[in-house]
Amino acid sequence: MESIISQDTIFILNMRVRMVKDTLRLNPPSELFMEKSIDDMVFIDRILSHLEKSLINSYRPENDDFDSVLDTEWQFSQILTEFSLDSCPFAIKNFPEINEKIKTLGQTSILRRKELEKKNISLHSIQMEPGVSSYEMSGLLEKNQ
Fold this sequence. Notes:
Elements: H1 7-25, H2 30-57, H3 65-82, H4 99-128, H5 134-143
């Protein structure tokens, strides 16, 4: 079975994020678009959770998908923040019934980002470790002269 993390998966997820973002930039009628926008946010959240679990479970130092997923996670959290703005057509203050759902999505997003960043930092520290210490390198260079 092919890994769920692929550039195609990340691209499609980013398209979904942009679609919700664009919807919030316009002034759509809430009775037509609010429920679908919230459903899309729940869908994006679910996919991001799958991607996070997959990245952490299949941890490999050469894996470069962390940055792509972290970027998508950041964009997702920015959209969640927009729901608290007065300029949002589905602002929480005007639609208190979505408050709990947006709050829950925000909390899970924060937890995912922390876990991914923690694992990604250890990934980068492993990749940054030199294979040869500077002392060993100096010794090797001296022998070659």
